[in-house]
Design goal:
Blueprint lengths: L7 E2 L21 H14 L4 H6 L3 H16 L6 H14 L3 H13 L15 H4 L2 H9 L6 H9 L7 H23 L12 E2 L10 H5 L5 H5 L9 H23 L4 H15 L40 E2 L5 H12 L3 H14 L14 H14 L2 E2 L6 H6 L2 H12 L6 H6 L6 H31 L1
Parallel strand pairs: 3-4
Antiparallel strand pairs: 1-2
Length: about 450
């Protein structure tokens, strides 16, 4: 009546992929979740949709929030507005307008110069110099060399200190992988964010024209997802078949062990095969506001490392690992962060409720390790003690397509991809898969950057 336009939410619930009634409802949470919600609200000033989806796994969420809070708000080498600007640069590489918009607000809130938001060329030269490292970390981290590190540390008046560079690298990898989580779980923008609301009036039947144009035909339609519907015989068989394979692999492991040469061959085969797993070209990536002004070289994207005659030498974890090398380097130059990251990696990798779909008391360690090592294999990272033959046994093609898309080109992830893998599994289990993808990706990027920094230092 007063002519005030009232925003209405465009989506239903925190995720486009998970029906709202299957997410954890605020008000029905237990004491631990309630404390996490309170912490998240106190830190961010809101209960964001990432938190509302991650809370399926409260132990992980607690570690995640603690790490993110430390990186953005506690004492550290970089000033606060630099931290949020680096978050914007990293999220923009994957066209993740959801994260870009959040950090634009935070950047202005801590006193950042609005001019910087007109494009990277308006930011200080020191931040512009980070652009090259940002794009390589996001898309082809195996190309990073000690020369790239040297350029950042040795440019006269705009040089970075080692401690500042470690802080920047951790922020870049954190936001590249958080973009993977945002797209992989179909996170919806909050009502007050761009793309999160409409001003069109509600119609009589309780949903508006904009819902129809967005493909929503009413509440019931939104909830009809393959996972929510009655279990089909085919998808039940999928779970049984996967469990049977795990059992057989365990038996083979107990009986015989492949030679080192055979293990190396299997790794190379899997690395080669991972190049032929690609998301179909006709997949539409969600339309996003133009965020490309926050980075240079928009045509630079993910390319498999063995294409076009380029051969990238295998990165052997035995020569440079997070546990033995990366952790201590980070902790030395940016105290406590190594510890926080280590805990977060550890929780994601070891998280289990010993369930698989409708089955209880299942040891899922073999499956978790296959997912983690497959991601590292896509980045050319090899574990000498792992039999890469297990990956093809445990991860089917639709699952590999989802993994590779979420990790390498997250902006191309679609609901169809999310629905097509592990059809009989709970949404919480699919969110768990995303946590593994996020942490394995972050660790792979960090390993390449930290190895280059170590080489520069020595």
């Amino acid at each position: 009546e007063l002519g005030i336009r009232i925003p209405r939410p465009l989506g239903h619930g925190p995720s486009r992929f998970i029906p709202e009634k299957e997410t954890i409802q605020v008000g029905n949470e237990d004491a631990m979740m309630h404390a996490l919600f309170a912490d998240s609200f106190a830190t961010l000033g809101r209960l964001d949709n990432v938190t509302l989806v991650m809370v399926f796994h409260p132990q992980y969420l607690e570690s995640f929030l603690k790490t993110q809070h430390y990186l953005l708000q506690m004492d550290g080498p970089l000033p606060l507005h630099y931290r949020h600007y680096i978050g914007i640069m990293a999220a923009a590489r994957h066209q993740c307008s959801y994260l870009v918009n959040l950090h634009v607000n935070d950047f202005l809130h801590v006193g950042g110069d609005p001019k910087w938001l007109n494009g990277l060329e308006n930011a200080p030269q020191k931040l512009q110099n980070l652009g090259e490292l940002n794009k390589m970390l996001a898309h082809r981290p195996w190309l990073i060399t000690k020369e790239h590190i040297e350029q950042l540390l040795k440019t006269e008046e705009n040089s970075w200190s080692l401690a500042e560079l470690i802080h920047a690298v951790v922020l870049l990898t954190h936001y590249h992988s958080l973009a993977s989580f945002t797209f992989g779980c179909g996170i919806s923008p909050e009502i007050d964010c761009e793309g999160g609301h409409t001003f069109r009036p509600p119609s009589v039947s309780n949903y508006c024209i904009c819902d129809i144009t967005n493909g929503y035909h009413g509440v019931d339609d939104i909830h009809a997802s393959p996972t929510a519907s009655m279990p089909s015989m085919e998808s039940v068989c999928e779970v049984e078949a996967l469990m049977e394979k795990m059992k057989q692999l365990q038996e083979c492991r107990d009986e015989e062990e492949a030679s080192q040469e055979e293990m190396a061959t299997r790794f190379e085969r899997e690395k080669r095969e991972s190049m032929f797993v690609c998301s179909s070209e006709d997949e539409e990536s969600a339309p996003t506001r133009d965020v490309s002004r926050h980075f240079e070289d928009t045509s630079y994207g993910y390319k498999d490392f063995s294409r076009h005659g380029m051969h990238v030498p295998t990165f052997r974890v035995q020569d440079y690992s997070w546990e033995d090398h990366g952790y201590s380097l980070v902790n030395r130059l940016y105290p406590d962060v190594g510890q926080l990251l280590d805990e977060k990696f550890h929780i994601a990798y070891n998280l289990t409720y010993n369930t698989m779909a409708m089955h209880k008391d299942v040891d899922t360690s073999m499956l978790r390790r296959a997912i983690w090592n497959y991601i590292h294999c896509m980045f050319g990272i090899r574990y000498d003690d792992y039999d890469y033959g297990e990956i093809n046994q445990l991860l089917d093609r639709s699952f590999k397509v989802y993994i590779k898309t979420v990790v390498c080109t997250p902006e191309k992830t679609t609901k169809r991809m999310y629905d097509s893998f592990w059809r009989q599994f709970e949404h919480s289990e699919k969110v768990h898969v995303n946590l593994l993808l996020v942490e394995a990706r972050m660790q792979a990027e960090l390993l390449y950057a930290l190895r280059a920094i170590t080489r520069y230092m020595t």
